[in-house]
Write a structure and sequence with these properties.
Layout lengths: L4 H17 L3 E7 L9 E6 L3 H17 L6 E3 L6 E5 L3 E6 L1 H7 L1 H4 L11 H5 L1
Helix pairs in contact: 1-2
Length: 125
């Protein structure tokens, strides 16, 4: 069996760099290896608007294709509320903050939602 751990870390680094370049907020990386067969890593990040979320996904898709990835699936780009980019061993969820707080994927994996991604009502409490 071939060890793809290094390749997956390179892919994860490409994703992180792309999101950081696009000023994504609250980037969370969840290691799924050994917990799920869907991917080795899940990345969750926020953009401040539909336009930013869509632009981040476009930039990420270009970067992945330039890196030689061929079968990348992207869902939700048209709306920009929540975009899923499936790059095989790295799955990326890009949200507007209120949509991220509603679905709270971090909780499903036993993590806390970053404080700045909390719903606005709970920040005032």
């Amino acid at each position: 069996m071939q060890d793809t751990t290094g390749n997956n870390r390179d892919l994860l680094e490409l994703v992180r760099n792309s999101l950081e370049d696009d000023k994504a907020e609250d980037i969370v990386v969840i290691e799924l290896a050994g917990k799920s067969s869907i991917a080795d890593y899940m990345v969750i990040a926020s953009g401040n608007s539909n336009r930013q979320v869509s632009a981040m996904s476009d930039h990420l898709l270009r970067g992945l294709k330039n890196a030689g990835m061929k079968s990348i699936i992207a869902e939700g780009k048209d709306r920009g509320d929540w975009v899923l980019v499936d790059a095989g061993d790295v799955v990326v969820h890009l949200f507007r903050p209120e949509v991220r707080a509603f679905y709270n994927l971090e909780k499903m994996w036993g993590l806390e939602l970053p404080e700045s991604a909390q719903p606005f009502a709970s920040q005032d409490a």
